[in-house]
Amino acid sequence: MTQTQAREDAVNPKSELPQLETLDSEVSSVATDEVGTQTAASDATDRDIVKSGKPYGRILLWVLGLLLLAMGGYWGDRWWKFQQTHVTTENAEIRGYVSPISAEIPATVQEILVKAGDSVKAGQVLLRLEDKDLQLKIQEAEAALVNAQAQLAGARDTVEVTRQINPTQVGRSQANLAASQSGIQEAQAQILKLQAQIKTKQAAVNQVQTEVTRTQADFQRYKFLYDEGAVSAQQFDLAQAAYNNAQAGLAAATQGVAQAQAELASGQAQLRTSMAQVNAAKGQVAETRVSGQNIIVQQDRQKQAQAQVQQAIATLALARQQLTYLEIKAPVSGYVGQLTAQLGQKAQAGQPLLSIVPLQTDRIYVEANFKETALAKLRVGEKAEIEVDAYPNETFPATVTAISPATGSSYALIAPDNATGNFNKVVQWVPVRLVFDADADPQHKLRLGLNVTAIVETSN
Q: Quick one: which of 49, 80, 135, 310 has the most CB atoms within 10 Å?
């Protein structure tokens, strides 16, 4: 015998405790009226029996009274046992998970493919929107991506060329610097050599000058003696030849010194030229090194170009993703409700257009509020039966899955304050969630918001 049958045998189908108590009082009053009526009838019958002389009528009346008393005790016992093993509440309703469907982007409603109350499957197209500017945005994003990719390719080529050319330029400038420094050393060595030669030739000039002075004095003395006839013409000629030779040697030595000085001046000019070349080579080396540092700048530009490419890719992906938003699909299977979309309507992003209400058994549940006095009997996992007002002759099996950690008034916008001095003790209600069994409603007859009666078996 099921819980409902037992309950129907014990009390009226509506099993709330106050109603049961009212029913009990009504039964008692009816029984009292029946007993009073039976007593009056019995007295009249007794009088008739006494008058008629038949005692069997009184016995029959007593038997009927005892039978009614036994039946009342039997049903009262069943009602009492039911109250001990079950808790019941009519403060309950069916709830579920409603999926609101809204537009992801501003667009115009072009086509409505469903009607209110239609059954839809997950992924089914519900609405089609239109946005003529979206395709242009995609083309713009594609062009921006191509431009960014070209800039990235140019930045990469610049970095690669600089990386290949810079070492060659640095090596060449360093070689030029080394050659210039070598030229300075050679010029300095040549200058030192020429200076030594000049000193040597100057010493020779001085020596020749002494010889010129001596031969000149001899020439003048021999000329005086020759004029006096003191010496022969041969001796005079020898003195004159010696003097002329000394003068010629002085002229040659002087010319050698002048030539050495000219070479020294040329060597000094070459030294200055080599020093200028060294400075130029140093500047070129510094410039090539700075050019090497430009690789870092160019690499930063390459990274910037890469970031621009990524940004363009993201912009294009977003535009293409928005294109998919023009078809609105059902996220879950269920039934269409709250269909407010109209053809030609300009829908804004986030604007609700319809709702999907899943009526599968695992997507709906019962939110039942039990009195706090029944909380001691309730446990998670206890079996229950749900009576729906819309279907009075059916019950739906369910299971207690959660008991709220707080009473319903604790979640109120303005919670009660018992410290104000106006305390009135009121029985609190505790929300309890009951989930239907898997095969409780195969036809999906249950609807969200329906009033139900929850009967939980607490015997276990």
A: 49
